[in-house]
Amino acid sequence: xxxxxxxxxxxxxxxxxxxxxxxxxxxxxxxxxxxxxxxxxxxxxxxxxxxxxxxxxxxxxxxxxxxxxxxxxxxxxxxxxxxxxxxxxxxxxxxxxxxxxxxxxxxxxxxxxxxxxxxxxxxxxxxxxxxxxxxxxxxxxxxxxxxxxxxxxxxx
Length: 156
Prior knowledge:
Blueprint (H helix, E strand, L loop, with lengths): L1 E5 L8 E2 L3 E5 L4 E3 L7 E4 L5 E5 L3 H4 L6 E4 L9 E11 L2 E7 L3 H4 E5 L4 E2 L18 H5 L3 H10 L4
Parallel strand pairs: 4-7
Antiparallel strand pairs: 1-3, 2-11, 3-10, 5-6, 6-9, 7-8, 8-9
């Protein structure tokens, strides 16, 4: 499973935008949170998380498990917690968190970046002339105009 965390929608000539991706390990326990299920709260020091009206994933969690709440309206940043201890109290479950290292939940991370393309590293086909644009030329062009410009000049 991977989570896409963003994408650059702006195209600037000479840059290749990409999206952020986080590839999670397969042994994690996934749960959702909403207005009715897995309502999450915590104490000031964030030493535990309280789940009201927990679903089966939270009810079945045990010491050593890693529980992931995917980003949603109820938990916009998402939540990953390694279970240190569990207390059950009626319709709520309190999970005390243990230290969690990134390598315990993440297989790979692909961070978005815009990689500059240097003119000196571009190999041109015979008969193609590479023309350098200024920053002001590029900023004034829409994505469509850029594609038309590069297509008409044999670059695309």
